[in-house]
Prior knowledge:
Blueprint: H1 2-32, E1 40-45, E2 48-53, H2 56-80
Amino acid sequence: MLSIELGLTLFILGFILIFIGIILSIFTKIAAGEAKVEGGGVVLIGPVPIAFGTSGKWVVIALVLALALMVVYIIFGRWII
């Protein structure tokens, strides 16, 4: 019982520390005037990927990550199901 409670406590503590770190990083960048946000994503509708992003670089990164996740699913998904 103790190990479950300890694991859950450490998980929540880690999540809180990561959240605080992200918030502090954002405020530091805003205060220094260096705030620049870029990103991208992929929506899969069946086998068709629809990619979007703020620049071509982020669209390519999003597509590569989506392809990598699909390969991981194909490899490990057969063992789980």
